[in-house]
Design brief:
Elements lengths: L4 E4 L4 E7 L16 E2 L4 E5 L9 H7 L7 E7 L13 E12 L5 E6 L5 H12 L1
Parallel strand pairs: 2-5
Antiparallel strand pairs: 1-2, 3-4, 4-7, 5-6, 6-7
Length: 130
């Protein structure tokens, strides 16, 4: 998958595929988004760099709950493993829009419906500190 967002209109959902540890080998400067867990319940995510708060996509994120639209979060630590094979994503479940700051990209805070597993929180905390 090249894009980190998959809009699924047939099931009224957006699937967000998040790689936490981005490297220059796999990501351009415009796609080195700052995505991380704030804690076990809240997640900071940056939209694609072309998404503004007034765009159709930005409005879909902001108003998803009122429109009965689901936001599905999938996360992995690294793009590839030591054998250069794609790492799997962990499904974190549904998320609810809390707030955003900025535009192009939008920095969105999502609230997870279910707490994030502890091992993923440790990994994202380590990445934020570095």
């Amino acid at each position: 998958m090249r894009e980190g967002v998959l809009y699924l209109p047939n099931i009224n959902s957006d699937a967000l595929f998040i790689t936490l540890n981005k490297t220059k080998k796999h990501y351009s400067p415009t796609t080195m988004y700052k995505d991380y867990a704030i804690n076990e319940t809240f997640f900071h995510w940056q939209s694609q760099s072309s998404t503004s708060e007034h765009s159709k996509t930005g409005q879909r994120y902001i108003n998803h709950k009122a429109n009965n639209h689901s936001i599905l979060l999938f996360v992995r630590e690294d793009k590839e493993n030591s054998n250069q094979l794609a790492n799997p994503y962990y499904f974190l479940g549904q998320a609810e829009y809390i707030e955003h700051k900025g535009s192009k990209p939008m920095s969105i805070t999502w609230k997870l419906k279910h707490p994030m597993p502890a091992h993923l929180i440790r990994k994202t905390s380590r990445l934020v500190i570095n």
